[in-house]
């Protein structure tokens, strides 16, 4: 009888230890799962950050190119104004020369 009780007590202790180890194993698996999820989230955030960073750089480059284009357009517009003035001045000179030649021809 004593031997049976000892065996039963030992079985109960082993069952309790097994339950505790099972609970610990579940906790460890849960922790690992949470850490993997957190790692995955961090990796996703890094990829999202990298993508948004690349997008921002592309937008900055596009902005710089647009600014360069606008500067070039402004320079061309200034040249056009100068050329238009030159043409107007040339027309005036030609008109004056024509008038003088007409006066000379009439006299």
Major sheet: size, sense and barrel closure? none
> Residue ranges: pLDDT <50 for 5 or more in a row?
none
Strand content: under 5%
Helices and strands, in N-to-C order?
A: H
Number of strands: 0
Gap between N and C termini: 156 Å
Mean pLDDT: 88
**Multimerization state:** single chain
Q: What radius of gyration results from the CA coordinates?
A: 45 Å
Number of helices: 1
Shape: rod-shaped
Quickly give the structural class: mainly alpha
Which percent range fits the helix content? over 70%
Strand-helix topology:
Layout: H1 2-106
List keywords for this structure.
107 residues, 1 helix, mainly alpha
Could you characterize the architecture of this molecule?
It is a single chain. The chain has 107 residues and is mostly helical. The chain is built from one helix and no strands. The chain has one helix at 2-106. The protein is rod-shaped and about 155 Å long. The N and C termini lie far apart (156 Å).
